[in-house]
Amino acid sequence: MPKPLKLPGLTEFVVLVALLSSITALSIDGMLPALPDIGRELGVSDDNQPQLILSVLFLGLALGQLLIGPLSDSMGRKPLIYAGLGLFSTGCLLSMFATDFNTMLAGRLLQGLGAASPRIITMALVRDCYRGREMARIMSLTQLIFIMVPMLAPALGQGVMWLAGWRAIFASFLILAMAVVLWFGLRMPETLPPDKRTHLTWRDQIQAIRSVMSHRQTLGYTIMTGFVFAAFLGYLNSSQQILQQQYALGAQFPLYFALLSLVLGLAGYLNAKLVLKHGMKKLVTLSIILVSSMALLYLAYTLFYQGKPPLWSFLLYAAITFLGIGILFGNLNALAMEPLDTHAGMGASIIGSLSTFISIPLGTSVGLLYNGTVLPLVTGFLVFGLLAYFTMRLTERTEEQQ
User: Fewer CB near the terminus (10 Å): N or C of the chain?
Assistant: First the structure.
């Protein structure tokens, strides 16, 4: 009879999983204040082009997730964490010493490929150890820390940049990765026992893919996740230009970014309290209606100001929207993973990769359409919110017919 897993305590488990997940978010948000300086030093002429430093990392994430899930189902969770963070560290070094923009993007691609490992395997870890609403609660608590860490990232990035230049930001990512992987190695057991691992053959992998894709709930909520994240990616890509340049916040940009990120963290905490009472699907429905309706109302308001509404109104709109986004993030992955009794690693891989592939072109296009106004961003939230809503309705209707 197999021995029960000796997991860290709940608080340590949540913090460790959240920090592993936060490596991705930190490597995104920590770069925001440095984008103009990197563009100037590496000879970029288009003001919107430095946004690719963010988008290319997401491309690496999407590609890496295609491999990480199947490999972790076959080899176990821990070896893939070590390999992924090693690749991430290599990308940090390449970007740190980049002398041209293409080398910078190559390093960011490697960082994304490596960061796919903790992004996917943390989902599988939670699925290995928890079920149902308790799983959603753990993911929501994880989301709280996941947001709180990168909430400070722009301020940390700006502070490091002031002290030692933008290249030192990548050194800080490298140090964090080494510290987290050491903690993980010492405290987290292997959560996938040998008797539950799959064989890494083409036939087995195709069978696993078919098994995951046969769950309409998994597929539907994965697509919905892609649309929701596309809207948020549009914000990430253009937030520095909107807040720091359009609204002339300058060095105060990290403070305002942190305040809006705090709303996401509070939404995760609120969701952890509400989900046990109301369930995931009800909260997802209410949240996507909130996001879409707010975008429609604020778009009309924004048109009245030719796309340049007062700062207070933009912050209020963003805060209400992020409340809904935070609750969505806390539940959509859990809903997509819920039917997967087997092939959790493959499931996490497909969910993460497909949703990211959906979000990259859509969210990047919103950022590249930035024209000195908030119109592209708000329009993106409206269009992608409606697409997510109709995807949810179609998924629920299909489930009722089964």
Answer: N
